[in-house]
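Hi support team,

I've been running sequence recovery on a batch of backbones for a student project. Most finish fine, but this one hangs at about 90% for roughly twenty minutes before it completes. I'm not sure whether the input is malformed or the queue is just slow. I've pasted the structure tokens below so you can try to reproduce it. Let me know if you need the job ID as well.

Thanks,
M.K.
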């Protein structure tokens, strides 16, 4: 009888351990709320204040943390394909980084906006290309093309390394309802809120699998990952908490 009880307890402990390992990382939204401008022209979605005023009044500082509850080392490579931006000085978060939902669980629609300042953006890209060319040729990767250099450079800025029981804190920003590019001043995408409803939000990030980025790493980057026994975390993280959206005139 004692043996039977011990076996049951042992199986229960294994089961509990497996459950913990299924969710080793936890994302938490640290903001109390998000604020959004009420768009007066709901048909065309036009902002009727100056860009400077919009930038000052409707920038939401975003603070969040990622906690590693396991005893493993994890590498997270943020998937920026859909403009889900890692906290980065030249870019705000995109609305797609945040899950918005009303009291019935329905999501608002998303929309694109007219871009401006395109020449400034292309000048910046050309500048980055020239820097990448010198750097990657200098470290022995002249056989790779500019696309490979660009992807590797983006990967470096999209990597999060988190050790056992470690907590990492991040801060960035977003404008609502339209997101803004800090470099160009573009309003490049946004959310169409129904301001008669109440919305809440959760933060989310999607991460790349090893096979999605391995070929774009240098040999030393691969060595660092493998020799330090990093586990590639390729699941989506959604914040465990939610915060309300406040509409302002």
């Amino acid at each position: 009888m004692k043996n039977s009880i011990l076996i049951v307890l042992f199986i229960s402990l294994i089961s509990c351990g497996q459950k913990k390992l299924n969710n080793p990382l936890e994302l938490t939204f640290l903001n109390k709320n998000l604020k959004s401008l009420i768009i007066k022209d709901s048909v065309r979605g036009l902002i009727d204040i100056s860009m400077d005023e919009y930038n000052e009044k409707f920038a939401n500082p975003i603070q969040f943390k990622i906690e590693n509850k396991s005893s493993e080392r994890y590498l997270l490579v943020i998937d920026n394909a859909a403009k889900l931006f890692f906290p980065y000085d030249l870019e705000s978060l995109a609305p797609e980084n945040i899950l918005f939902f009303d009291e019935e669980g329905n999501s608002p629609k998303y929309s694109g906006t007219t871009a401006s300042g395109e020449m400034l953006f292309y000048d910046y890209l050309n500048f980055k290309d020239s820097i990448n060319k010198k750097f990657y040729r200098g470290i022995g990767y002249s056989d790779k093309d500019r696309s490979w250099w660009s992807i590797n450079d983006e990967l470096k800025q999209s990597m999060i390394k988190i050790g056992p029981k470690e907590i990492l804190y991040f801060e960035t920003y977003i404008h609502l309802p339209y997101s803004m590019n800090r470099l160009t001043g573009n309003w490049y995408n946004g959310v169409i809120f129904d301001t008669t409803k109440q919305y809440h939000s959760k933060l989310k990030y999607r991460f790349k699998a090893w096979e999605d980025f391995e070929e774009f790493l240098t040999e030393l980057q691969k060595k660092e990952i493998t020799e330090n026994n990093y586990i590639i975390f390729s699941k989506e993280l959604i914040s465990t908490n939610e915060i309300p959206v406040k509409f302002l005139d």
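--
Follow-up from support: It reproduced on our side and the slowdown came from queue contention, not your input. The two ends are 70 Å apart (CA to CA). No action needed from you.
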